[in-house]
Amino acid sequence: MSLWSNLLKTYDGIESSTGIVPFDEEGNPQVKKALLPLFHMTFPTKLQISLDAAGNCIGVTRDAQDVTIIAPCTESSMGRAGKDPAPHPLCDQLQYIDSTFDKKKFSQYMGQLGDWKGGNVKLNAIFAYLSQHSLISDACDHGIYERNEDGSVALPKGEEKAGVRFSVRDLDSSESNVWEDKTLWQRWIAYETGDKPAKGRDSLGGIFRSQAANYPKNIVGTAGNAKLVSANDNSNFTFRGRFSSQAEASRIDSITSQKAHAALKWLVNNNGTITDKQAIVIWAVGQRRRIPLPFGNSYVVEQATEAYLTDTEILSRAKSNTDTDYARKFGALVRGFGSAEQVKNIQELSSCPYSIRPLRAG
User: How many CB atoms lie within 10 A of CB 122?
Assistant: First the structure.
């Protein structure tokens, strides 16, 4: 099987763990080790805006260190670069969501949010607030920033790139943090995928509905701008000379691309051995789930289904399916830790059913 085929099969095997954030031994969330939902990314934030359901500001806080969250994104925004980078649909940098900072970026952000908010209470509260208020001004009122003598705001250098997240007190929901609301994740995925008819198969054999035009970056953290696929260079010879357009050069469905990249990023962060800008990834392909015994009682059979598993158990199953423990031991051997017998076992990897892929980013 090809790398892409392995990644798609791996994603299907661990999909139940989507969005579940693991914790380290000290209880700190490890957001970057979570399997990301489709059309979502990890995003560093520093400011939190608290609103009520009517869009009134309740409070503004600023963290001493970045807080990484799972945030919705578009194909364009997840790999954004250049002179006119696209906005994220919800949580974004201060320069995109404040009406007084950058009119063009703010207009693009609000236009996108307005298109998909529908009747959702939380999204409408955020839209109403940003339409009528300056976040920077409210941050001053809450003691986050200081005003100059002429009334202007003295933003710290680089503060325009500070990430902003929202919480909304919705009486109909127990979850006020919008970045943790899984119903909003599903709402954005549905908005991005839509009800598009199938148009045959893509280059990887998956159902083709819409062309992936941009591809995610930051797969390997030490080489954040590197991509596996890039076909957006219309002026040089990335594809010109053989094809007339990038769609001819790379016919990959957007959902196929999302699944493959999400699986690879999860594998790099959970099974990878990082050396400078290279990630060595080893994992098992396929599902090795325990099947309930046919003679077991109904309670045991019922408890074996995923509907009754805790998040910790689901993550443990995902790691077992991809043999994260074996990958960890492999990484230790690569770094010089292990016995001669273990090294001998590693040398016999060519005969075992694992995918070993050195991924060079950069």
Answer: 26
Cβ-count burial 249-258 (b if 16+ within 10 Å, e if not)? ebbbbbbbbb
pTM for the whole structure: 0.83
**Contact between 68 and 32 (Cβ < 8 Å):** yes
What are the domain boundaries of the chain?
36-193
d(CA 341, CA 223): 34
If you write DSSP's letter for every residue of 96-114 in order, what string do you get? HH-TTT-HHHHHHHHHHHH
CA-wise closest residue to 261 among 37, 44, 43, 73: 37
**Which among 195, 193, 197, 168 has a CA at the least distance from the CA of 40?**
193
Question: What torsion, rounded to 10 degrees, do the Cα atoms 251, 254, 260, 261 define?
Answer: 110
Query: What does the alpha-carbon distance between residue 124 and residue 127 come to, in Å, rounded to a whole number?
Result: 5
Closest Cα partner for 38 from 188, 146, 222?
Answer: 188
Distance CA 337, CA 54 (A): 58
- Residues 224-245: pLDDT tens digits? 677 777 666 666 666 666 777 7
